[in-house]
Amino acid sequence: QSLSAATAVAGVLVLARSVRMTTKFTSALDIPMEFIGKNVKLRGKLHHVTEKGLEVEHIPISIPFITLLQRKWQSKGLLLVRLAGVELAPSGVAWLQQELKPEQMIWFQLLGREDLALECLVLVNKGRFLSLCLNEEILRQGLGRTARIEGLHHDSPLYWKLHKRLLRAELKALKKNKGIWKEESYSERVRDRISNNKFVQTLKQFVSWLRSS
């Protein structure tokens, strides 16, 4: 009897785990903290790219019998996924809108949750065995800046491991004067030329003389 009871309990636990893994999440608040703490990777279908982040339809693991039952009561909704550790420039949003296609499948690894948004590493497939991390690619293109990775403890090994990856990507854009770094270097040159212009210098001296007198 004890063996049968243990088997039954094990079966219930396996079923519960299967239900959790096959549940379609329609809100960030639906995702268990255990998933976020373990940095679980989820799959989804892209719907929109907005200034707030990516609106993604979660596509759970499919198990024929369980999935069929769940579809009858699962609600509809999209998850708001943000690129963790990245402060997007307007040109970065435009780049994502151009590069990502509606209905495109993406993977997002959970790092944290802030209000109704998920902080994630976002991956897209670039072939059978290749994938591209959008967080790093945005920084490599100079279309954003590194920022604090929300949701991860500042002193955790994972935080610094990911932060170093993002800083290296940003440094490549900085060295090549790409994206926002090119714009900033150009504006600096313009400011230098204006400040070094003889007419501007004479005008400054005249203004100083007026103030002193």
Automatic annotation (TrEMBL):
<keyword id="KW-0812">Transmembrane</keyword>
<protein>
    <submittedName>
        <fullName>CC033 protein</fullName>
    </submittedName>
</protein>
<dbReference type="InterPro" id="IPR035437">
    <property type="entry name" value="SNase_OB-fold_sf"/>
</dbReference>
<dbReference type="InterPro" id="IPR042421">
    <property type="entry name" value="C3orf33-like"/>
</dbReference>
<keyword id="KW-0007">Acetylation</keyword>
<dbReference type="GO" id="GO:0016020">
    <property type="term" value="C:membrane"/>
</dbReference>
<keyword id="KW-0472">Membrane</keyword>
<keyword id="KW-1133">Transmembrane helix</keyword>
<dbReference type="GO" id="GO:0005615">
    <property type="term" value="C:extracellular space"/>
</dbReference>
